[in-house]
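Good morning,

Both structures are done.
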Amino acid sequence: MKQLAITDIRASNLKVTVDELKRRHGDDIEVKAIEMDVANEADVDRSVDETIQAFGRIDFAVNNAGIGGAAKPTTDVTLAEWQKVFDINVNASITCLVLRTHVS
């Protein structure tokens, strides 16, 4: 049986994805859906812990989170808007990689 943990900031997205995985793979897949914000260090820690608790280990992980930011000229972007983009697109990758090195 395949085992897969998936995360998303929106529970509704998780439900759609789990439903599609179950439709395609039936009883041959076990999915652990975890709602989390990739820019939130505590959420990342929790998702790693929940995955290990559910499956015993993590063999590999993919961080595919990213946002485009505000649709306006760069000179009009606020620092808070830029920080959100940077936190999700850059810092989250490091958070998921560096802080989770205990996973093997």
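Second structure follows.
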Amino acid sequence: MSPADSILVTGAAGFIGSTLVDRLLAEGRSVVGLDSFDPFYPESDKLRNLAGALDHTAFDLVRGDIRDAQAVSSVFGRGVDAVVHLAALAGVRPSLERPVEYTDVNLRGTALLLDAAVEHGNPNFVFASSSSVYGERTDGPFLESDRVDLPISPYAATKKSGELVAHTFHSAHGLPVSCVRFFTAYGPRQRPDLAIRKFADRILSQKRVGVFGDGSARRDFTFIDDIVDGLVRAVDARKPWGIFNFGAGRTISVLEMIETLSRELGCEAEVEFLPRQTGDVSCTWANIDRAREELGYSPAVSFEEGIRRFAAWLRQL
């Protein structure tokens, strides 16, 4: 199957979105980016993410909300071969404080995009889901076929619900959909609220690093370039329907992460242990066999190398 030439990326100004946009443009594709520039973190950060893309003739940025049916229909009307739907209200903890808004953006907005996709010729639809759908588990690695009907945060619930809604559009209308479950993405352009970025900022400022729980929680930290490579593969594969884990396939404890980060930054981290937070899970760990076999997904960046690349980017800010 030939690669998609024209791609709509929602959430294009974000961490993952902007990195994907740069990759697609480098491959000679045209990209329409849709982003509402939600004030969850500074717009200046998002514009910096897109600095290179905004100078590219094959990139068109549209400011708009995925809940705005007219704006969504307009971007689809430009003609796209594929959609990578990354736009969402993100974060487990904030979703506990704003569950209604998270449901409105992440579920209603996704349904509007799916509906518009059907109306505009069924382009391949890649939906960004999350490892949070697996809920609280201490075993692993997690398989796409595992039960995921016990989410422990509104954010996780909206992502699982998004998968279910997407399947109805596939079943009823033949829309090709790939749901990709991200496992703890990190790297250059990482959002300031995410652990590695937040911890690095505090370490460099010689401030205490607050760790919720005892630091033994484990995460399948996945480097941004590996995630983006998987997204491009999902776009070009045009699977009729599929759910795929995008992780590294191994786990690192929070304390091990802090030690690696401190070593790369050349600064000692002073850790302060805090009560465990509602909504946090003990472990994320991806089985990536299906993504490897069906998409050719193959994460290549070790955690240590990923942290080196992240630290090099951070020093340039």
